[in-house]
Amino acid sequence: MIAGDYVETGGNITQLKAVAARAPRNVELSLGYGIGRLAAGYGILLLAGTLSPGEFELDGITLRSGGRAGLPADTAADDLKRERVHDAVLRERGVNGYRALQQMALRAIAITGPDRIAKIRPVTPHDDDMKPSLQYPMGGGGLQWKLTVGRRFLIAATVDAAGIAHAPDFSVPIGPHARYEDRARLNKYLEQVAAV
Question: In 3D, which of 59, 57, 75, 78 has the Cα closest to residue 67?
Fold first, then answer.
């Protein structure tokens, strides 16, 4: 991953304010990644453009690991038995109610600022042999959606194994003991950079 490049991807997304310029371990806790998942580094991706209702499903909040009710299971088969938030909302609200909630979600999203859509792409890939309960524990409660189509994202910054964030024109530490000024600089950049 190279900061400034674009990539097409799908999967779970959240808002920038849930990840931003936090220390890697704090991003893991916010999103529901297992301990050390981001230790080798990761990319901070920002959505290019806007979303439409047909491009995403409601996945609740990151407390709902994988967008599913209950705690993550110890096996992939058991984990898939947990009901998806998407399915529960559709059943309870019907198609029109579901669409209304999607429209409400879209009003909470911005093209810039802390409410813009972001995605974390870990260097360490998903491990099919790891227990879901360890790989994707409960997160911190930020909003999350699941893309149903691949979308274009700007790789706004990369974070290396030393906790240094690299944007196209500057690098700053964001690890546990990073200075406020460094985190604020990265946050300001992430909130303002154009993703087209």
Answer: 59
